Amino acid sequence: MEIARFVQLLRARWLAVLACVALGTGAGLALPLTMTPVYEARAQTFITLADASAPDASLFASSQFTMSRLKSYTMLVGSPGVLGPVIADLGLGTDVATLRDAVTASNPSGSFIISVTAQSGDPATSAAIANAVSERLGTAIEDLEASSAGAQVSAQVVREAEPPASPTSPRRKLALALGLLAGLAVGLGLAAARQQLDRSVRTAEHLKQVTGAGVLTEVPLDPSIAGVTRSLSVTESFRTLRASLRFVDVDHPPRVIAVSSAVVAEGKTSTAVNLAASLAASGSTVCLVDADLRRPGVSQHIGILDSVGLSDTLIGEYPLDDVLVDWEDGVTVLPAGTLPPDPAALLGSQAMTATVAALHERFDFVILDTPPLTPVVDGAVLGALADGTILVVRHGSTDAAAVARAAETLDDAGARLLGTVLNRVPRTRRRRAEYSYVPRTRTGPGPARHADGARADDDAADGAAPRATDQAAAGSTSDVADSPAPTDVSDQPAPTDADDRRARTDAADGPAPDAPDDPEQEQAPRAATTTDRTARAAAGAARP
After folding, report:
1. How far is CA 412 from the centre of its chain?
2. For 19, phi and psi rounded to 5 degrees?
3. Minimum mean pLDDT among 86-90, 296-300, 423-427, 431-435: which range?
4. What letter does residue 302 receive in the DSSP assignment?
5. Do the Cβ atoms of 240 and 345 come closer than 8 Å?
6. CA neighbor of 129 nearest in space, from 171, 87, 78
7. Nearest residue to 334 (alpha-carbon basis) of 295, 304, 354
C-alpha cells in the first residue's frame, strides 16, 4: 500500500484502528492475570569416565562411546525408574505421567552435560524436582553403563537448581507487546477491508463520476457550531452554491429549483432553507415550498406553524395568498399543510402545476423541498415540474449505488439534474484555520442551520438536539443542532479587512439590488415573531 493511501486509510478509519489496539492491549494485560504462573528451574549433570588411568587410546574410544550415547541418556529422564523415586522422595502427590510433562532433559551439542529442567507452580518445588531428577538420572545412567571390563560411566551433578525469582510464564511484557501488535494488525486489516468494501461517496470527484453532474458546492462539517452560533465556512459554501447556479445555464438560469436526496438524513431540507436565505440575501425574492407531503420538515426547521399549506391550496380549501407565510426579508414560505393520503397523485395534479406557475410569476426563485428519490416517486414528479433538481449527498454516508439510482430516477422522469451538493465534508486543519478569525461568541435567534439540517424525516438520524427558534417560541424544536444560524444585522461585528475580502469575492457573483453592505448579513435575515405567525395561521384557519 502506498504511503499516501496508508495515511488516508488511517485518517478515515483511525477510530476503528484505535479501538482494536485498545482491545489488543487490554487482552495482553488481562490474559496473564488469568493464567497460573509457572516457575522453571534447571540442574546440570556432567557425564565422564570413572577409570581415568586407562590408556589414552582406550580412554579416547570410551569417550567417543559415551558421547554417542548422551542423546540416549536424556531419554531416561521420563522413565518410571527415575521419576517414581523422585515422587516418593519429595512426596509430590502426583503420578509419573503428570510429572513427565513437567520435566525435560537436553544435551548441548559437543558437550558431556545433561541439563534437567523442571516446571512447577511453586519456585522451591521446581528446584527440588530438578535436583532430585538429576540425581536419579545419574544413578540410572551409571547402573546401565556398568562394565565388567573396568571403565565405568560416572554422572555427577555440577550445578544444582535454585528457586527462580520470577515465573517464566506468563510473560507479562511479552503478552502486552503481542496484544498491542495483534490489535494493531487486526485494526489495520479491518480498516483496509472496510475501505475496500466502502461504497459511500467521499470525494467530489467520485460524486461527479457517479451522477455525471457537477458538484455545485461542498458544505463542510463544523462540530464547533451549535444552536444559533454562526459558522462562516458553512455560509461561504451556500454563497458558492448560489453563484454556481448562475453558471449552470447562462441563457436560461433555473428559477424553480427542486432540492432532493437519494435517501433520508442527507440534509436536503436545511440545504433548501439555506439556499433560499442566500438567494434572498442577494436581493432576490424567494418562495420556499415544503413539497414533502409525507414527512414535512421546513416548518419545524425554521419554527413556523404549518396547520394549513400547500396541500390545502391544491384541493381548493384555501387560496394561495392565505397560506403563504412571510419568514425572512425576501423569503416567503409555503408550508406543507394537511398530509394527504396519496401525495404523489396530488403533487402530479394540474393544480400543482398551476401553483408552481403562479409562484414562478410572483417570485424570482421558487425552492421546492422534495422527498427522497429512492423511497418514493414524489421527488421525481416535482423534479419534472421544476427547472432542475439539486441532489444532496452526505459525505461518507450515502451509498454510491443509491446516488446513481436517484440520478437515473430523475432522468427517467424527464427531470433535469442541475448538480449535486456534497454535505458534511470533514475539513482539513488548513481549511479550519482559514475561518478561525470569525467571532463565534454571540448567541441569539436566527433560523438558518447547518446543511445537514433539522427535521423529523431528513436529519433525525444525526441525533442532534432541538433548539428554540426565538424567545417566545422556546418550545419549538429541531433535530439538528450543529447548524449555522443567521443573526440580526445589529448584532454583527464591525467590518474588518477580512470582511472587505469576502465582499470582493461576492462581487464576482454580480450586482444585487439593495444587497446589504456586510456580506455576512445574508445569514442574518430578520425572523418573523411567533405572534405574527400565530395570528396569520389563526386567520387562515378561521376562513370558511
Report:
1. 34
2. -65, -45
3. 431-435
4. H
5. no
6. 87
7. 304
Q: How many CB atoms lie within 10 A of CB 3?
A: 7
For residues 503-527, give the mean pLDDT.
38
Tell me what pLDDT residue 526 has.
Answer: 35
C-alpha 50 chain-centroid distance: 76
DSSP H/E element including 422: strand 417-426
Q: In which element (H, E) is residue 153 found? A: strand 153-159
Contact 155, 142 (CB under 8 A): yes
Helix (H), strand (E) counts: the chain: 19, 12
Q: How far apart are the first and last CA of the chain?
A: 71
Task: Please report where in the chains the cell 581415568 appears, as a residue.
Answer: 52
What amino acid is encoded at 221 in this protein?
L
Alpha-carbon dihedral of residues 226, 227, 231, 233, nearest 10 degrees?
Answer: 70
User: Distance between CA 394 and CA 408 in Å, rounded?
Assistant: 18
Sheet with 153-159, edge to edge strand ranges? 103-106, 113-120, 39-49, 153-159
User: Among residues 481, 484, 422, which one has the least CA distance to residue 455?
Assistant: 481
CB 107 within 8 A of CB 67: no
Do residues 491 and 334 touch, judged by C-beta distance below 8 A? no
Which amino acid belongs to residue 318? Y
Q: CB–CB of 297/453 below 8 Å?
A: yes
Burial readout 319-336 (b: 16 or more C-beta within 10 A, e: otherwise): ebebbbbebbbbbbbbbb
pLDDT one-digit tens code per residue, 171-189? 888 888 999 999 989 988 8
70-88: average pLDDT: 87
**In this model, does residue 69 exceed pLDDT 90?**
no
**What was the pLDDT predicted at 294?**
93
Grid cell for residue 469: 427558534
Strand partners for 156 = 46
Instruction: Count Cβ neighbours within 10 Å for each residue of 176-193 and write b for 16 or more, e otherwise.
Output: beebbebbbebbbeebbe
For 133-160, what is each residue's pLDDT tens digit?
999 988 888 887 775 445 577 888 889 9
Q: How far is CA 275 from CA 174, 211, 433, 503, 516, in A?
A: 59, 21, 25, 18, 17
